[in-house]
Amino acid sequence: MKISKYIQISLICAMSLTCACSLDEYNPSGISTDQEWSTPSGFEKKINDCYFDLIRIIYGQAEDTYLLVAEGGTDIWQDAVAGGANGGWSQIIRYEGFGATTGMLSEGYAGFYSVVNSCNAAIAYASKVSGISQDNIEALVAEAHFIRAHALFNIVEHWGGKYLPTTPTTAPLSSLPCSKVNEFYDIILQDLEFAIEKLPVAQSVRGHVTRAAAYHLYAKACLSYASYTDGMGYSDAITPSQSNELIRKAQKAADYLIDNAQSLGVKLYDNVLDVFAEKNNKMNDEALFIVCHSSITAYNPRGNYFNRVWKHTEAYSANTSGIYLDGIVASYATEINGFTVPKLAKGNCTMQPSKFMLDLYTDNDTRYEAFFKDTYYVNKPTESDGFVYVWTKADADRFNLSDARVGNPAYNINLGDTAIYLSRKPFTQSEREACRYAVYNIDDNYANPSEPLRFFPSLKKADT
């Protein structure tokens, strides 16, 4: 749990912007908000609106900073930019010199509050909908309850006790009173108990929340709240008996999810390589809640802004200080000049896995291969025949290799063959020189723990 207790980020500007001038407004449909949201189709649109900023702002289509806030300052990541010279990114990853004015903190914060406001409106209008059965109304509004709980859980776990609205904002706010952590969890758990009871097991539209997700988040929220046995800032200490009861509820929810996985429509893959395989992207059997982005730009809230979260953990950034070779280039092509080549996305080389994280995976742990990208392939021919990459002096120098390979046909690499390999098992210099491709020892990347280099394995899970 990472709580920035003393960071006060104003939400007023996001929720109460007003103009000095007055406008004559004309509503061509003649239908009011009350009328629209009280109809079956209008209410369904309002439920859909609860998902909007999850896609647009928080999970990958804005500046993509929420990953940084959620994980950046923990022991599994470290700054990929030497000297902490990457502004707010470096400040948060290193936990140095950041505060309320650090822009990276505001995006997810404001985004989650926008989600909360949409959910509050949907919940408020559930009692006004006509022309649809009560069961269907409850199934729809259960989505809003889950999404509100999801947003509030992220707010309280990362920012502590802050503003806690439970009704839609309809007028400018002049102040934002803070609520206690306990009050947040009261709402979170109530929302999830309703969602567990009323959410459908399956949805016709992929990405809409199902009952399995509610069981999972309920268990997670109970475990998190159970640790608040000390008063910290905006929280009251809970008693040992309350903590034990929360742990019991967490176990009950988790056991139910595990024991009834098949009937709830989820399962664990037999082969760990399937977990982040591209074929299983949106239809992943292990995923409990999916925020969907589309390759069809018109379907995305911000058009050609696709899911961009993967950028931060990608070592290839066309930056010659790290994963770079004249023979590789960012490309989504899977065939070049008749040769099969893997896709390669260009990131921004901001966050790299810490040595601690990598060392959690032992030599025989197949999850390492499934979760981390340590091999890059030639997808850009440099020979005039269009089939091979020929070593340059700049590339040889970058990987501390002898000039003997420069322009030497014996070291040419065919399209689709290995260009760079980041090895967990150290190669000697002579072993590295014997390979046509570049071998970089991962240990060398972390030789100076405070100033790691930029030759690190990239996390695969957001590549697809």
Question: What would your notes on this structure say?
Answer:
With 464 residues, the protein is mainly alpha-helical. The protein folds into 2 domains: 34-307, Alpha Horseshoe (Serine Threonine Protein Phosphatase 5, Tetratricopeptide repeat), CATH 1.25.40; 316-459, no CATH class. The chain is built from 16 helices and 11 strands. The chain has helices at 12-15, 33-37, 40-58, 66-71, 87-94, 106-125, 134-159, 181-198, 211-226, 240-259, 261-264, 355-359, 367-371, 393-398, 429-434, 442-445, and strands at 77-79, 335-336, 339-340, 351-353, 372-373, 375-377, 388-389, 413-414, 418-423, 438-441, 458-459. The strands form 5 sheets. A 3-stranded mixed beta sheet has the order 6-9-10. The protein has a two-stranded antiparallel ribbon with strand order 1-4. The protein has a two-stranded antiparallel ribbon with strand order 2-3. Strand 9 (418-423), helix 15 and strand 10 form a beta-alpha-beta unit. Helix 3 (40-58) packs antiparallel against helix 6 (106-125), helix 7 runs antiparallel to helix 8 (181-198) and helix 8 (181-198) packs antiparallel against helix 9 (211-226). The chain is elongated, with a radius of gyration of 25 Å. The model is unreliable at 1-22 (pLDDT under 50).
Number of strands: 11
Helix fraction bin: 25-40%
- Shape descriptor reads elongated
CATH architecture of the largest domain: Alpha Horseshoe
* Order of neighbouring strands in the sheet with most strands: 6-9-10
CATH class category name of the largest domain: Mainly Alpha
> Largest sheet, if any?
3 strands, mixed
Number of helices: 16
Supply Rg: 25 Å
In round numbers, the mean pLDDT is 87
- The ordered string of helix (H) and strand (E) elements is HHHHEHHHHHHHEEEHHEEEHEEHEHE
- Give the percentage of residues in beta strands: 5-15%
Number of domains: 2
> Any idea of the CATH topology of the largest domain?
Serine Threonine Protein Phosphatase 5, Tetratricopeptide repeat
Task: Report, as a whole number of angstroms, the end-to-end distance.
Answer: 28 Å
Low confidence ranges: 1-22
